[in-house]
Every structure is written in C-alpha cells, then in structure tokens.
Predict the structure.
Amino acid sequence: MPLASIDDDLQRNPTPAEAALTRRVDLTTLRLFVAVCDEQNLTRAAQREGIAASAVSKRMNDFELAFGVTLFKRLAKGMALTPAGEALLHHARVTLLNVEKIAVELSEYSQGVRGHVRMLANLSAIVQYLPEDLSAFFGAHGLLRVDLQERPSGQVVRGIEEGAAEIGICSAEADNARSTFSTTDTTIWSW
Amino acid sequence: MPLASIDDDLQRNPTPAEAALTRRVDLTTLRLFVAVCDEQNLTRAAQREGIAASAVSKRMNDFELAFGVTLFKRLAKGMALTPAGEALLHHARVTLLNVEKIAVELSEYSQGVRGHVRMLANLSAIVQYLPEDLSAFFGAHGLLRVDLQERPSGQVVRGIEEGAAEIGICSAEADNARSTFSTTDTTIWSW
DNA sequence: TAAAAATACTCCATAGGTATTTTAT
DNA sequence: ATAAAATACCTATGGAGTATTTTTA
C-alpha cells in the first residue's frame, strides 16, 4: 500500500452542502473561538469578551455540532485545540483581520475621506483662486483625496456631465449641482 | 496650499471606536450587500438570497447609519455604488471567500480528514505488517494524513508518551491507549 | 475534589415578514 | 405612472443570562 496516496485527493471544491454550512459561520463565534484559543480556557475567554461562559460554551458546542468537528479537547484545566481547531484558528484570525479592515476603511470614509474625487478646473481658477477656495471647501466637506486636472472652462462642465469628474470649477453658471461654494468670481459645484 | 498634502495622512491605526464598530459587521449583511451590488437592485438581491426586500433595505440602511457612510446612490431603477461602497465591496468579497474556506476545511475534517497525524513504528512492523494493518486501520478511522517515522520499539512507546506522535506501532503491550487494532503479532495503539 | 465546561430554563432583543408609504424618473 | 426602496408594525426565533449539573484529571 503506497503511503503517499494517503496525502492525495485533498484539493476539493465547495459542495452545495458546504455552501449551506457557510452561513452557519458567524463573526461572533469566530471572535469567541479565537478568545478561547488565546486563553486556552473558556471561562477566561468569556470574561475577556464580556459575555457569559455558558453562552460561549453553547456557541462552541453548536459550532462543532454544525460542522461535525471537534475543535477542542476538554481538559480539567481548560480547552486544548485539536488539529481541526488549529486549522480553524488560522482562518478565523485572517477573517477577523479582514473585518477590522472593513471597519477602519469605512470609518475613514465616514470621517470625510470619500475616496478618490476627480476634479476639473480651468487654469486661471487653479492659479488664482483654488488655494483659498479649496481650503474652505475642504473645511465644509471634510477630508478628500483629490485628483485635479486642468481643463478649459467649457470642457469642465462637459467633463462633469460625462462623469469624468465629480467636482468642477469654472466661471459659468450651472444647474442641478448638489452643492456649491462661491467666492468672488469662482463657484465650485459638486455633483 | 500644497495639493499633495491632501493625499497624506491616509495610513491610520484602528482607534477604540473603530474596534467597537468591528462588531457591527456581520456576515449576513456582507452577503446581502454583495448581492445588492451584483444585482444593482435591492429587490432582486432579496429574491436571490431568499429574504424579504424590506429586511435587506433595513440592513443596508442600518449598516450605513452605523458607519456614517453612504454605500449606495438610490436611483429609480436600482442601487448604484458610491466610492465607499466600492471599497466595502472589495473587502466583503475577500471576507466571504475566507468564510467559505472555513466551511470547506471544516467539512473535510468532519469527513474524516483529521489533519496531520504523526506515527511511529519499528522497522520490522513497517516492512512486514504495516501495509495490511494500515489499510484496516484507515478503514476503521477514516481518511488521515500520515507522517510515518521509523523508531526502535522502545522509542516508539517513549515518543508517544512525550507527545512526539499520536500513533505508535510496536510489539509490546501498552495501557491507557484509547483504541487498538491488532493483527497476528502487531498491535496499533492510538492515543 | 476542585476547577472548568455543559446543560436547563427563562427572558428579551433583534431580525424577518406583511402591508403601506415614499421616492425617483 | 411605475418600479423600487424605505418605513411602520408585529411576531417569533435565537442568543444571552442565572442557576445547576456534569465532566475531567
């Protein structure tokens, strides 16, 4: 019997059953699972996460039941990971890090970082007025990442209409703008 | 005003507030969010996910509210992503893929792949008896990945005691084994 | 036997459903 | 005018807590 063959056939695709199992995973359980792994003790993990130990126990047991897997060996002094548990721990850490990234990135947006805003302006506006106007605009709209391109006044409006940029700066009037910021002879429209 | 400076200060660490926001993210919302992005239409997304449209709407709105971010522009014909939404979409996809990996890997374990099992055996056992014994053992215990090492009989027992391996094969008797599989003159103990 | 985990049971918050209203083109 | 999204309201499920029992070394 060739021992090597035992290691074969380990690459598989998600079956329908596995796809259904996917939605039995939830982030709270993963967080608690990681806490239990860190503490090697369900009670301490529960304290650390500010939740009743019984709730953690139920989550761990339900999770094991749902996947038909034993994640921990229950010892008198705490919990020890099984190989399956080790495997889960790795993926759980990665997943939770991803979720943290989501929170961080969305928080940035909520604080006014609205991503890449494309801005068109005619040259004289850039040279003469943009410095003060921009600082006022940013004061009113929060932090932005700006991609500024110089265009003749006529192309500014057109560029906005075509979706080439979100903010246009020129000397002509314009309707259907969502908000405006005006100075002596320059008006900033944002769509 | 140096425009370049606007692009500075974009690397940040998670604040306590962001850490708290982390637990407002849940996988169901991410799944529904991705569905809405795919369909560009909340109603269709709800159908596809087998849930009421109102529930999806509420989740999306609550999520936007929690993070103080607008993810969609609401159009008469459907929903269009904002830049913040685009950013979330990327992370959401990655996260959901990770979760799928979790389900797949745990399913493998539940089907008997118990990860890497270390096994010690003395040479004569390997040469003479392992072939048939192993096939019977695997038949009884399900699929395993095996790391086999040759050891003199004495070191086999010792290696097991020290946790160097989970399975030992030799010709002596042993107690406190969890399960045994015996043939003519070879016994497999597993701990 | 002592520390820790699991269970039994209760209660409440939340998430989903139905029906309706509001919005946008 | 119409399709789609948001809201209001109700209900029920499930998740958390307290108290207790069971397990493990």
